[in-house]
Amino acid sequence: MARKFIVGGNWKMNGSKALIKSLVQETLNGASWDTSKIEVVVSPPAVYLDAVRQAAKPEIGVSAQNIYSERSGAYTGEISVDFLKELGVEWTILGHSERREYFKEADEFVGKKTAFAISNGLKVIACIGEKLHEREADQTTAVCFRQLKAIADALTPQQWASVVIAYEPVWAIGTGKVATPEQAQEVHHAIRGWLAENVSAEVAEATRIQYGGSVNEKNCVELAKKPDIDGFLVGGASLKPEFVKIIVAGE
Ligand code: G3P
After folding, report:
1. What is the DSSP letter of 250?
2. Would you call 182 a catalytic residue per the annotation?
3. pTM confidence score
4. Are 194 and 148 a contacting pair, CB within 8 Å?
5. I want to staple 195 with a disulfide (CB 3.0 to 4.6 A). Which of 25, 88, 146, 204 is the partner?
6. What span, in angstroms and rounded, lies between the C-alpha atoms of 243 and 251?
7. What is the Cα–Cα distance from 85 to 224, expressed in whole angstroms?
8. Atom nearest to 237 CA in ligand 1
9. How high is the ipTM of this complex?
10. pLDDT for position 105
């Protein structure tokens, strides 16, 4: 079964009204790609979600960067699934390594939020990935499988239809040190194998696995050729016009 290539732009804590105009309204709305083969999702900071959803053409999905695991209440600063639904935002990123590292989000909490988001009608880009010292200690797959298991434990088999896994080796994020296509393919293949063994062959075959970490217009084409790389989650380069070149790498 062909998996539709999916490219996400994670703006992180960057952006402005001016960027929405230049990047979304002018560049992305003006660009074209084969929508039968490629899905595009942009993930601005929460305060810009409404403006981006209104500015972006309908075939561009919009994603939050995080949500909380309750619908409403005394949770100062948090983002509810209901807010997203009211704005027409269909996606959220969860478990990004920056949330895990700086905001101490544990594996189980990421799993719980993934299940909560999906139960409330959202689609999730769930991030996993090892740190440099873990790779050097030959712990890459052990770390990825541990993070994946916490997500899988929280989901029913049917809910996997709403999940995209983003494999983002932490040492490659924002460093300019992209994983080689072979390194990325090796881990993506292992992740798919884990899904086959621990969830089901169908889920393993259907689940899209994005690569994230210093993806740019120069390295995206070779990465996209690998059989288990089904798209990208792009940080820095998603803030620039070169994002369009990364999108069309999926063609
Ligand atoms: O979520 C995207 C990400 O963490 C990669 O960031 O700047 O290395 O493309 P960057």
Report:
1. T
2. no
3. 0.98
4. yes
5. 204
6. 14
7. 32
8. 9
9. 0.99
10. 98
